[in-house]
Amino acid sequence: MLSGIRLKNFKCFSDQFVTLAPLTMLAGINSMGKSSVIQALLALRQSHIHKTLDEELQIKGKLIDLGTTDDVFCAFPSDEKEEELVIELGGARTYTFRPVDSPVKKFKRVDVLGSEEDLFKGLFGHDFTYLNAERLGPRIYQSIPDPVQRDYNPIGNSGEFCAYILNEKGDSNVPCDGLCVRDGNDGNILRGVKSQTELWLSKIGRRGRIEVIDHPKLDLVSMLFSFTFGGVPSAKYRSTHVGFGLSYVLPIFVAVLTAQPGSLLLIENPEAHLHPKGQSVMGEFLARAAACGIQCIVETHSDHLLNGMRVAVKRGIIAPEKTAINFFTHEEDLPSATVINPKIDGDGRINLWPDDFFDEWEKNLTELL
Prior knowledge:
- By secondary structure, the protein is an alpha+beta fold.
- The chain has 10 helices and 17 strands.
- It has 2 domains: 238 residues, Rossmann fold (3-Layer(aba) Sandwich); 124 residues, no CATH class.
- Strands 2-1-5-6-7-4 form a 6-stranded antiparallel β-sheet. Strands 8-14-15-3-16-17 form a 6-stranded mixed β-sheet, with helices on both faces.
- The mean pLDDT is 92.
C-alpha cells in the first residue's frame, strides 16, 4: 500500500508530505488542498495508462483534467528559482518533472528514482477505483464501459457504470469475507456481491432489493428498487423515485464489495446525500474494507464519518495504526497549506483537535448556550 505522498510545487503545495494508511482521511475547510492530493495520484495513473509516464506527466485525460502547466505548477514555490515538480510515493519512488513550452506546454519528466512501479499495483494496476464528488444522480438507464474506460476506472469517475458492474459481478462472492454482514432476519451470511450490497444499503435506510436489467441490444443497464414493509415486498421503483442517497452511495458499496485485497480506492465525499446515521455506517464500512487490505483514501467533510471510523477502531474492526487523519489548514500570512495529523487511539479517542477540525457543532452549541 501507499504509505505517503510528497508533493513539491504541485498546485497549492510548495513542499508537503501527506501520510497515507490503509484507511486515510483527508479533512479540512474548503480550498486547502485535499483534492490536490487525489489529483496528483490520478495524474500519475493517467500517465501510466497513457504510456507517457516515461516522458511526461499527463494532466489532461479520462481520469482528470488539470488544465495547463500554469494551473498545476505552484504559484509560490519554496525556492523562486525552483522549476521542478516532484511527486514522491511513500519514500520509495520519486518522479521529477519540469514544465516546458515547446511545442506545447507540458510537464516533461527529467528523473525517476526508487523502486519499480510494480510495487504500487493498486495505483498502476487493474485493482483501482476513483469516485469523484460529482457522482451520477438517479438515472433510469446507465451505459456500459468501453475497453479503454475499463483500463482507467471500470466503475466510472462518477459511478456511471455501477449498474453494469453490479450486473456483471452481482452473483459472484465478495472477495473479502470481512465485508460480509449477516442478514438481520435469519442470521445467515449471503456472500454474493448483490446480496451484500442490499444488506449494506439496508443499514442506511429501509430494507430493500435491487433488480438489475440488462439491455444488450442498446448497451444499457437499468435498475429497479423495492422495499420490504412488515415482510411484504413493495412495488418496484425506478431509481428516480427513491431519492439521491441510494444513487450516490451505491457505487461506493459496489466498488468496495468487488475489490480485491491490495486494491486502491480514491473516494471524494462518500457522505454526500446521506443521513448522519448513513454517514456513520459508511465510516464503519470503509474501516472494514481497510482492515481487509483494501486501501481507502477518502476526502470528507463529515464528522459522522469520522466518528464511524473511531467506533470501528474501538470495536476492534480496524487497528488504530491502520488509520491516518490528515487535517489541511493554513497559517496566517503563509500561502501554502499545512497538514496536521491527529491520531486515533485504541479507544477511538483523538489526541488533537485543532481549530476547524470538526468542531463546528461545539462552537455553535457554545454560542447557543
